[in-house]
Amino acid sequence: MKKGKLFVISGPSGTGKGTICERIINENDDVALSVSMTTREPREGEIDGVNYYFVSDDEFRKVIDEDGFLEYACVYRHSYGTPKQAVLSKLEQGIDVILEIDTQGAMNIKKKYPEGVFIFIKPPSLQELRHRIESRGKDDQETIELRLSEAEKEMGLIDEYDHCVVNDDLDEAVEKVRNIMKEEKNAVSCN
Ligand code: ADP
Ligand code: 5GP
C-alpha cells in the first residue's frame, strides 16, 4: 500500500497556521492533523486530546525518555512534541498527516524525514502579525512580545522550506496550501 505523505506547516505564532490547518482538515477526510503534547496551560476553550494533550513537565519528560516523540522542542518557554506512534501508524495506513509545528520542530523533522513537504506560512508584515496575535486575545502582553521577538528569527529560515505561502487573504492562502498538497501528492517519486 502507498504510504501517506507528511506535510509540515510551520511559521511564527499568529501567522494563521492553525486557522489554515483547520480549514484543510475540515474539508478533507484523507488528511489527519497530528495532536501534539504540550506543557503549556490550556487556553480558554481548548480541549485535552483535541487541541493538544496537556501534560505536566514530568509526563513530558517520561515520553522523551521512552523515545515517544518524532520531534520535540522548547517553544516560547514551554515544551511541545509530536507523538511518534500516532503519526507513523497513520502514514503506514496511507493517510496523509499534517504537523502544525514551530520552525525548530520543522528543521528536526527535515533531518529525519527529508521526504516530508515543508510549508512556511508567512504573515504579510510584522505589524499585521502583532495585530493578529493581539486580536486573538489569548496571550498576555509578555507572551505576545516574546512571540513577536522570535518571529523575525523564524522568518530567517524560510529558505529551508519547500514552499512559502503569504497568509494575507485567508481564502487565497488556504487555496495555495490546498494546491501545494495536491501537487505534492501527485508528484512522481523515483526512489
Ligand atoms: P497560529 O496558529 O499561526 O498561531 P492562528 O491561526 O491562531 O495563528 O491565527 C491568529 C489570528 O489571526 C486568529 O485570530 C485568526 O483568526 C487570525 N487570522 C488568521 N488568518 C488570517 C488572515 N488571513 N487575515 C486576518 N486574520 C487572520
Ligand atoms: P501555541 O502555544 O500558540 O498553541 O503554539 C506555540 C507554537 O508551538 C506554535 O508555533 C506551534 O506551531 C508550535 N507547536 C505546536 N505543537 C508543536 C509540536 O509538537 N512541536 C513543535 N516543535 N512545535 C509545536
Low-confidence stretches: none
Summed over residues and divided by their number, the pLDDT gives a mean of 94
Into how many domains do the coordinates divide?
1
Strand order of the largest sheet: 2-7-1-8-9
CATH class: Alpha Beta
Number of strands: 9
Number of helices: 7
Name given to the CATH homologous superfamily: P-loop containing nucleotide triphosphate hydrolases
- First CA to last CA: what distance? 16 Å
> What is the element string, with H for helices and E for strands?
EHEEEHEEHEHEHHEH
List all distinct small molecules, including ions and cofactors, that are bound in this structure. adenosine-5'-diphosphate, guanosine-5'-monophosphate
Q: Helix amount, in percent?
A: 40-55%
Largest sheet: 5 strands, parallel
Class by alpha and beta content? alpha/beta
Tell me the β content. Answer: 15-25%
Brief characterization of the structure:
This protein has 191 residues and is of the alpha/beta class. The protein has one domain (6-186): P-loop containing nucleotide triphosphate hydrolases (Rossmann fold, 3-Layer(aba) Sandwich), CATH 3.40.50.300. The chain contains seven helices and nine strands; from the N terminus they run βαβββαββαβαβααβα.
